[in-house]
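Let us work through a complete example step by step.
Step 1: write down the sequence.
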Amino acid sequence: MRLSIEPLLKPKSIAVIGGSNSPTRISGRPIAFSKKANFKGTIYPVNPTRNTVQGLTAYPGIKDIPENIDCAIVAVPADIAIRTVRDCADVGVKSAIIFTSGFAEMGKGGVRAQEEISEIVQASEMRAIGPNCLGVFNNKIGWYGTFGNSFDMTKVPPGPVGIVAQSGAYGAHVYNVCQQRRIGTTYWVTTGNEVDIDVAEIIKFFAESDEIKVIVAYAEGVKNAERICQALQIAQDAKKPVIFMKVGTTNVGAEAAASHTASLAGID
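Step 2: predict the structure and record it as tokens.
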């Protein structure tokens, strides 16, 4: 039985695999941002070369952490990312955010590596977002599972908007515009190459959440038209407007999408 995505968006314990002592590095930013935002859950950096990371006890591997993990961030090179995802699944991690790039967006070799990640995830209860994604955040609880600049952009309190985008860059742009216009956002999710969780599932989550009243979505390609239509119907039934930008309808746009988030774009 696959788990819900609630541990991804409302975790009580997180692990940052590859966690850096530098708060400016990709694998150090989620730790620094979440600490500054007063995240109330437990943060476990995983780094076999350090005893502490940003003032927190570090662990040599995900299997050495003495607590069940709601969400693990995978911020390691592509050549060890598959093994890392397998380790997460083996110890019962409930969800994973895979920052690592170098998969289907890179061509045939990357496609096979991504398929292996998909097989690991589908054979387990663990949910996964990415690879090749900018992560997620939940402003209400101070959870910043992202290496983007969203924490520094935040100027207004959390509000009724939920943002989901395949592209981290576009998702960050939408969030920044909301902040400039003083529109509060609670959830921000980027799905990347969508090895498991996709835009449709996040729209459905937002549609069913009492915290969200308006949904903003961006997609370069839709892999399952039925799923996206079902999610949009749930949003309509809940009387929640969905502002949806679908790109990649031209040949040039489709080529850009394929090299960006490995999306098969088109007139879908």
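Step 3: interpret the result. Residues 6-129 form a domain with the Rossmann fold fold (CATH 3.40.50.720).
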